[in-house]
Amino acid sequence: MGSDRHRRALTATVAACIALTIVLIGSPPARAADAWWSPVALRGTAITRVSAIGDTIMVHTATGATLLSTDGGKTFATAPATATFPPIDVVTIGTERWEIDPAGRVLHVADTAVSSAPQVDPGSPDLGPGAGLIAAPAALPGVVVAVSTSGAVWRRGQDGDWKQALLLLPASLVQGVPRITSITAFTEPLSDAIYLGTDGYAVLISTDGGDDWIRAGPGLPDSVSSLSADSGRHAVYAGTADGLWEHVLQNLPAPPAYQDAALVWRWLGIGAVTLVASAIALLAMIRLVPRRLQA
Amino acid sequence: MPRGSVATEAVGTRLQRYRAAPWWPNAATLVLAELGLGAALLVPITFSDPNGVDPYLARLSVASVLIAIPSLLIRRLEPARPILFALVAVAAAYTLLSAGPQILFDLFGQRSGSFDAQVFWSSVAQAVGTLLIAFAAWRTVAPAWRPSLRMRHLGLGGLAAGVIGSAVLIGLGLALPAGLLGRVALQPVAFGRDFPLLGPANALQAFSQEVQFRGLLLGALERTMSPRWANVCQAAVFGLAHLAISYGGPEAPFVPITFLVGLAFGWLVRRTNSLWPAVIIHAVADIALQFGIVQGLYGF
């Protein structure tokens, strides 16, 4: 009798677990908002480098081709042999310039109109020889984010203090830590955002100068090779393993503001449902809960 | 006799037999209260706007209190009291946590401190509220049905279970593929800034939830049910409660995971006869979630 009950309990537990697993598998993926990124062109082509200025977009593909579009990405043609990509280890905001030298030091020119001689930024980290990823959002003067060859992300606060801001975690035991491939920010004061491209976690974004980072890749392939922020079009372009993608700056959707009778009716409805549901549950309990003793 | 009548009679007989069982009051209370709270939570989605005007957590708390208070006044509902108190502790204390920062800001303006400070004080309020409801349950529930909270002792074995369980949980979290869990990165700057307040806040939240689910609820259920069924029931409520966190939003797919976690915590609490190992593991898990998972989970 006892073992029979145990068997039934076990069966029910297993059935519940299976049902819940089906719910888990069948649940739509969690998504807080509509996709942030939309495809522009070259789906199915792996892009290793992108640069966008206005309607001119240049990409380099994994097969070695360099393609140029002069109509905002609608059509691409082979780029002229003289076409070159802008350097990624230098960022210029107005007359201010930040760069990483070949030894991996962060150099700063406060005003290129006064002096072009770069100085090592005090307190800046040694990023390692060959490091070359740096970004500075114009909307946050003094803030710089740079990536070391070991993959650590450093940020310079507006007070000039450098701190390690981000350490990527392994994608899995087999895959290891994804590589940081790119970093960008708007060089016009359009947005506080700094975008970090990775080969595995798509894009991460920080809107507070590199202190907090969240994943910002809804809609984007996980493997991002290159990023380019174009202030003219208010857009960020991502070169990915599956073509060229675009994110256009947009306001976050605001909750609707009800100012008419709809608000009153909603409140009344919510209150009525709460009362009715509670009352029905209570009445059912009064009827059913007391244990009926056997005669 | 028509076949339908035979079936109805069979169901009626079975119901009569169930109603004579010792576990009936707790099971019936739990199912009916969950149905009532579920309806109060989910039905207004059809006509209200969860992001705009709908204070769904307050609504859930009000419903839980409306259902529980009569159990203090109506003699027939006395057996339902411990379960209903546990559900009030879950809903009302979570509302305190969730609405706390806004309430603090409305009351004290800029003097309410940073958002981290507001979350910390809201977590204190959640823990105090939970303990007050547990105290009320202790005072008003008959000794035969009174839940055992298992807060009196933490032996070396329990401590070891908490530490080892935490290590296993972190190891599992790191072993699972990042895409499945939402794990992406650690943020040293944000950690150094937030941990002094959000670390204790997460620990307090874990303590509150353990008192609510593995203390009040499991403790009440196991008075009349077999340990296995009591554990399954509390884990199911623990899983479903995560639906309410974001109104069936991003947390919905985690209901099955939290159900399994609830089962494990319930088993551990019974095995060690102490609430504290589960509190330790739960606190470590919440802190790890706060600082290593949430940023990658929600995206933007």
The CATH class of the largest domain in chain A is Mainly Beta
Oligomer: heterodimer
Q: Using the 3D structure, state the CATH architecture of the largest domain in chain A.
A: 6 Propeller
The count of DSSP E runs of length 2 or more, i.e. the number of strands of chain A, is 20
Order of helices and strands of chain A: HEEEEEEEEEEEEEEEEEEEEH
How is this structure best summarized?
The complex is a heterodimer of chains A (about 300) and B (about 300). Chain A has about 300 residues and is an alpha+beta fold. Chain A has two helices and 20 strands.
General description of the model:
- The complex is a heterodimer of chains A (295) and B (300).
- Chain A is α+β, with helices and mostly antiparallel strands and 295 residues long.
- Mean pLDDT of chain A is 86; it is low at 27-33.
- Chain A is elongated, with a radius of gyration of 27 Å.
- Chain A is 18% helix and 31% strand.
- Chain A starts with a helix and ends in a 7-residue tail after the last helix.
- Chain A has 2 domains: 1-30; 38-248, Neuraminidase, CATH 2.120.10.
- With 300 residues, chain B is an all-alpha fold.
- Chain B is 75% helix and 1% strand.
- The longest helix of chain B has 34 residues, at 188-221.
- The model of chain B has no long low-confidence stretch (mean pLDDT 86).
- The interface between A and B is large, with 73 and 76 residues.
